[in-house]
Amino acid sequence: MPEGKRKRQAVREGAGRRTLERWKPDEAARVLRRLLEVHPDLAREAEEMGRALLQQVGYEDVAAEMEEAIRARDYEDLNARAGSHAGGYVEPAEAAQEILDETVQPFLEDMKRHLELGLEAEALEICKGLVLGCYRLSERAGGEVLGWAPDFQGEAAGNALEVWYQGAGDAKKRPGGGGKRAALPADFLRLVPKWIPLIERVTKETK
Question: Which of 191-195's residues contact partners 24+ apart within 8 Å by CB, and which partners?
């Protein structure tokens, strides 16, 4: 290939990569669906890559991400939700609870998705991450909104455990047969010592 043509091709390829990097997630998803419609032979490879990505999860990362999301909610979020509105008056504590629940909900949905795909080891990592993140938030300052919902950390941890034990429905329908899901391991419980009674209670109620 002539040198000039090779350089022009390299420039086009570089511009194409920059365009890909600027796509929004929903745009990338639409392009992927369209690509698989045009090239169905790529479906198996795409599925394998997708499962590999879903398996890259660790509870420390989940805990840190959840803590950061909670601490990022501030008085501006609270003031937009609390107070007098067209639908009536909303107490600050009620508004704070709603905001925090909404913040954690994507993590719970992600755990459910992993369970539905049969990725139980990864779902357990998400559960552990949520419990650890909530525990840390109960031990030190958790941001401006969390102060209005003092019971949130324990409730959110309990919800995460309930999803872990029950979130994917009937155990008999799980890949590989039935059986109960594992309890949180002892080495993890040492990271949340004050919550061991809470975890044991929720575990007993939901298993």
Answer: 191/132, 191/135, 192/131, 192/132, 192/135, 194/135, 195/131, 195/135, 195/154, 195/157
Q: Each residue's pLDDT tens digit in the chain (207 positions)?
A: 565 555 445 444 444 455 656 655 555 556 556 765 666 765 665 455 545 444 557 999 999 999 999 999 999 999 988 887 766 788 999 999 999 999 999 999 999 999 998 899 999 999 999 999 999 999 987 788 999 999 999 999 999 999 999 865 444 444 433 457 889 999 999 999 999 999 999 988 886
Cα 175–Cα 178–Cα 181 angle in degrees, nearest 5: 95
Q: If we measure between CA atoms, which residue out of 100, 116, 109 comes closest to residue 160?
A: 109
Three-state SS for 27?
helix
Listed in sequence order, the DSSP H helices in 43-185 are 43-54, 59-72, 75-81, 92-116, 120-139, 152-166
Q: How far apart are CA 181 and CA 117, in angstroms?
A: 15
| Contact of 119 with 55, CB cutoff 8 Å | yes
Widest pairwise Cα distance in the chain: 73
**Does residue 207 contact residue 180 with C-beta atoms inside 8 Å?**
yes
d(CA 2, CA 130): 57
- pTM surpassing 0.85? no
